[in-house]
Specification:
The protein is 26% helix and 11% strand. This is Putative major pilin subunit.
Length: 319
Amino acid sequence: MRSGRFRRPVCAVANRGFTLVELLVVIAIIGVLVALLLPAVQAARESARRSTCQNNLKQHVLSLHNFEDAYLQLPPMVSAGWTSAHATQEKFKGAIGFTFFTWLLPYIEQKPLYDASAMNVGTVVNGRTVYFTPIKAHLCPSEISAPKGIGTTTNASANTWATSNYAGNYYVLGNPSGTTVAQCREGQSRLASLVDGTSNTIVLAERYGICGNTGVVNSSGTNGNLWCDSNLNWRPVFCLNPSKEPALATGAYPPCAKFQQSPHWYNNCEYLRTQTPHPGGIIVAMADGSVKSIPHSIADAVWAAACDPTDGVPLTNWP
């Protein structure tokens, strides 16, 4: 006689966990997914940093337009030097030791800092509040030569000076028709004087905050890009023309040499040129207020023509 009780089925495998092989497979799959996603994440971050840089340049070029509306001319590239004569133009008379970026402070929501400068300091000591203040609008998030916009210095009168990741075109903000260094420093341009047209002229471009193998803003003045200081070698300017600024001819690059694409800031950065940390090319601001990305494949002659507002050379293959 059969029993009325039924036997329970016995599970072939009870409480089975992952084997080592299965665990390794899962880890490998996760690793592949991360490897696939990482470039996309990095690209998204660089895109955001690039956008910040574009916005900074847009802010600066619009401040140039606002300044011109108020003063009926563009600001001087630099207002003399620490100890040399004051600026001679009436609108800028008395100012000494400052770059064009200082004049633009009220137009980028930095009027308290502008007021602190007094625009008439005679020595670096008087201007320390300004010289040593980093400004967010001057910092490109992709550029790492001067963390947080501070560069060290070997100058005995200072410790840390504020850098900029942007610079101005000498042909626009300086006075290339001048016959002396002082005249070359003081701008006389209006946007209407750019005969090639504002849409065809670069006025601002990217630049490394520190550029050179000393890693500091050297007291001999060879590798700093300071947003405020007008010292001959630390000023934020590119496209110096040696033939029209004799005192700076020694060792100068040809006018408007093309920018460097992602050079190492310590080993192979050339401080008289512009540089960009962005892989897609340099970001520039045109005199009409637009902002463009220029690929490194652009011809040297086209770059030079875009920087010279009076050469009459058409821009071919321009973005």
